[in-house]
Design goal:
By secondary structure, the chain is mainly alpha-helical. It folds into five domains: 137 residues, no CATH class; 203 residues, no CATH class; 137 residues, no CATH class; 75 residues; 84 residues. It is built from 32 helices and ten strands. The strands form five sheets. Strands 1-6 form a two-stranded antiparallel sheet. Strands 2-3 form a two-stranded antiparallel ribbon. Strands 4-5 form a two-stranded antiparallel sheet. α15 crosses α16. It starts with 6 loop residues before the first helix and ends with a strand. One of its GO terms (molecular function) is heme binding. It holds the Pfam family PSD1. It comes from Rubripirellula amarantea. This is Planctomycete cytochrome C.
Length: 817
């Protein structure tokens, strides 16, 4: 029986390390009782010939495809790359039974055709009997390849307790070391004989800080105020002003939405509109603006429905909205196999939580024990039980429906109840009139009431009923629309069996719900039998002793400020992730984060007020020879703006940015198809609102976002690539959007009551945050003059539009130093 004959299954096995700790040498070992003579006869007459005819050719001592031998009891019990072929006494857990039953589309053996029903029944019965075999008692089964050495696994740096490192000594001045970050960074610079650059000039610094915190360029007035402020706390004032801006939440909320794989449509097969996803987006923006403690932010998103909100309905609704985090992922809504769809959704949730909150690729343990990290196959299904016990879907029937909850306030509920009362009265009025009309009819002796009795009513009565029913139809159509939110609640609480190869068609032992043993140790409490365990899981994640949660988040904050994390692989802190460049600093920041009540804004202040953040982005050849990638932060890296910041900046300098916050821009009704690559496309990106409010349609992103390295909304992403490709330049040169914003800029400049040189200066100050040099003023004048030479039918406005477009298409506009 060739387990690797088909291409798809070959790929599955090559990607699979092995089945984990299920049973080998334990429940998979043959029973101690000796097989009876009748059982041995059954094996020799019905099973061995079957295996010989269909399996031995590819699974023997010389040709053990997939590392699987089926010509010996030891080979069957030990198994191959996909795990044990036989689990004695448990046909539902035995891959050999799954394969011959043809119930798994990716595992069908023998590949040339299914065995007869009698052969399938015989082999199944043999496994059920306990796999009696002449070699019983002589077999020594090896330990499973997926066994995890937890003690060794816990030695990995990211799984160690947080270390509140002592600040290193440095020869730098006391003033420079006022911020401990600089001491940690300075220590590594000293070790590598690197000389840090001095501070950036004020104009550069305020532009950097403003883009970092609110994603918009500073106004000329804000720049001049900072330049004029010669106090030692001038930059502190700038940072505090930006942190208090409502636009801060829009900027940093967008960073989090990358991690939450936010989208306004489902994607995949049925690209249905997430008509209420915007409520989660607005919750995130508000949370960042309020500086909601990160530990609370995490708990609300994982288990907001399970928190006690008392009589505060607004708080209860916000916490329900927060659980949209678990619902936002793409789903195959037309999946015919409902059990598979349910486990696929659970898998997507585990993967998102693992990489997003813990920096761990937990999803890799769905099919087998993790290939690299100390995460057991059983660990995965222990977590899966928590999320399978959570109601994510209202229905799994095609087309499946995600869960939504009512979040109406008291006034909305009062309107709903009043409308229902009026509808009920209207129905009662119709029923009363029909009953009266029936009584008015003269019954024929022995006649039963006919189904179409209303046809015997007088014309006037029928007309009256029609009018009443038309009124009822209008009433029902005018029902007030009640607000709902994408949210989860607890469902049927149950533990989950291990899925061998990740398939629900081959089940192993049931695993009690719990947390991964490498972190939670063995003496962890049992989760409640009457709830999913999400709340306990969320609180475990934000426990001060948890080694990952704070580390992962401070690393994200650092990355969003510097363009790279202290741990470069921001979504992977496992054994295959890159180690931190400054491990002591990472832990010190994580401890500070917790001690400052998980305040993200406090972390901003700590980082941005350091000398490390304020360094110049100039070049130093000697430093570059030692550290060309600037791993040790001797300078500030030059970074291109993200897609959203480019678009928002263009709108801002053109004076056309609509700064209205929140609300829904997606025009497609909830759950209706928004885009399907063929006939349906109801997307609309024509808005001047900030980019965070532009609908995110999976498989059909706004063109500009795609060009400038927007995140893939189908998966979480804590990192964005920065590419330089020709279509980006073509967009800046030729797109309708660029023409529109540069026209608006030209109109603003043309309307200013100043001379041409002053207009040029204003253009440079708004676009670059600085005044033009004399040479640049002359070049701009020459540029304008060339557009209006004799015989060239170009108006002054066209010339100014071309100049404005040239300025905002330049590298200086789209890059921050």
């Amino acid at each position: 029986m060739n387990y690797l004959r088909t291409t798809r299954y070959s790929l599955t096995l090559l990607l699979t390390l092995t089945y984990s700790t299920l049973g080998i040498g334990g429940e998979n070992a043959p029973s101690t009782g000796e097989p009876t003579a009748e059982q041995i006869r059954f094996f020799e007459t019905s099973i061995r010939p079957l295996l010989s005819d269909h399996c031995y050719e590819c699974h023997n001592d010389e040709t053990s495809e997939g590392d699987l031998r089926l010509d010996s009891l030891s080979g069957m019990l030990t198994g191959g790359k996909a795990g044990p072929a036989v689990v004695a006494g448990k046909p539902q857990s035995s891959l050999i039974v799954t394969a011959i039953s043809y119930r798994d589309s990716e595992l069908r053996m023998p590949p040339e055709g299914k065995l007869s029903d009698q052969q399938v029944a015989d082999l199944t019965r043999w496994v059920e009997m306990g796999a009696p075999h002449p070699d019983r008692g002589k077999v020594k089964v090896a330990l499973p390849r997926g066994t995890v050495d937890l003690a060794a696994g816990r030695k990995h740096w990211a799984f160690q307790p947080l270390n509140d490192s002592t600040m290193p000594r440095s020869d730098e001045s006391a003033n420079t070391l006022a911020n401990p970050i600089d001491a940690f960074i300075g220590d590594q610079l000293d070790r590598n004989e690197l000389i840090p650059l001095g501070r950036a000039d004020k104009r550069t610094l305020i532009r950097r800080a403003t883009f970092d915190l609110i994603g918009l360029p500073p106004t000329p007035e804000e720049i001049e105020a900072f330049v004029a402020d010669e106090s030692e706390t001038a930059f502190d004032v700038v940072v505090d002003r930006l942190l208090n801006s409502p636009h801060y939440g829009e900027r940093w909320g967008r960073h989090w939405l990358d991690v939450a794989r936010y989208a306004d449509s489902n994607g995949l097969d049925e690209n249905a509109a997430h008509g209420n996803a915007w409520r989660y987006r607005d919750y995130v923006v508000q949370s960042f603006n309020e500086d909601k403690p990160y530990d609370q932010f995490v708990v609300e998103q994982l288990a907001g429905d399970l928190l006690d909100s008392g009589d505060n309905s607004e708080l209860r609704h916000q916490r329900l909205i927060a659980t949209g985090y678990l619902l936002l992922g793409p789903k195959v809504l037309a999946e015919a196999d409902e059990r598979k769809m349910e486990m696929d959704i659970v898998d997507e949730q585990i993967d998102t939580i693992g990489r997003g909150l813990m920096g761990m690729t937990l999803g890799c343990a769905r099919c087998h024990t993790h290939k690299f990290d100390p995460i057991e196959h059983a660990d995965y299904y222990a977590l899966a039980g928590i999320f399978k016990s959570t109601k994510t879907m209202e229905s799994f029937k095609t087309v499946a429906r995600w869960n939504e909850v009512l979040i109406a306030d008291s006034d909305e509920m009062a309107r709903k109840n009043e409308h229902e009362r009026i509808v009920t009265e209207a129905k009662q009025k119709i029923d009363t009139r029909i009953a009266a009309a029936k009584r008015e009819l003269t019954p024929t002796k022995g006649e039963t009431v006919p189904e179409d009795i209303e046809k015997r009513f007088p014309e006037a009565t029928r007309s009256e009923l029609k009018e009443l029913r038309d009124q009822l139809e209008q009433l029902e159509a005018s029902a007030p629309e009640m607000p709902t939110a994408m949210a989860v609640v607890d469902g049927v609480v149950a533990d989950v069996a291990i899925h061998i190869r990740g398939s629900h068609l081959t089940l192993g032992e049931t695993v009690p719900r719990r947390f991964p043993r490498v972190f939670a140790k063995d003496a962890q409490p049992l989760l409640p039998s009457d709830s999913s365990g999400r709340l306990e899981f969320a609180r475990w994640l934000i426990d001060e002793d948890h080694p990952l949660t704070a580390r992962v988040m401070v690393n994200r904050i650092w990355r969003w400020h510097f363009g790279k994390g202290l741990v470069p692989t921001v979504d992977n802190f496992g054994l295959r992730g890159e180690p931190p460049t400054h491990p002591e600093l990472l832990d010190w920041l994580a401890v500070q984060f917790i001690q400052n009540d998980w305040s993200i804004k406090s972390m901003h202040r700590l980082i941005m007020l350091s000398e490390t953040y304020r360094r110049s982005s100039s070049f130093d050849a000697n430093n570059a020879k030692v550290d060309s990638d600037n791993r040790y932060y001797w300078r500030c890296d030059v970074r291109r703006l993200e897609a959203e910041a480019i678009r928002d900046s263009l709108l801002a300098v053109s004076g056309t940015l609509d700064r209205t916050m929140g609300g829904r821009l997606l025009a497609t009704p909830n759950r209706e198809l928004v885009f399907n690559h063929t006939s349906t496309d109801t997307s609309n990106y024509d808005t001047r609102r900030r980019s965070i409010y532009v609908p995110v349609i999976r498989n059909h992103l706004y063109d500009m976002f795609q060009l400038f390295d927007y995140a893939d909304a189908s998966v979480l992403s804590g990192n964005r690539n920065t590419s330089t490709i020709s279509p980006q330049a073509l967009f800046l040169m030729n797109s309708e959007f660029m023409t529109s914003v540069s026209n608006s800029m030209a109109e603003r400049l043309s309307g200013a009551d100043v001379d041409r040189d002053q207009r040029i200066a204003r253009l440079f100050n708004e676009a670059f945050g600085r005044s033009p040099t004399e040479t640049e003023v002359q070049q701009a004048n020459d540029f304008l003059a060339q557009f209006q030479t004799e015989g060239n039918e170009v108006t002054p406005k066209h010339a100014w539009q071309a100049l404005c477009q040239a300025i905002v298409s330049s590298s200086e506009f789209v890059y921050v130093k």
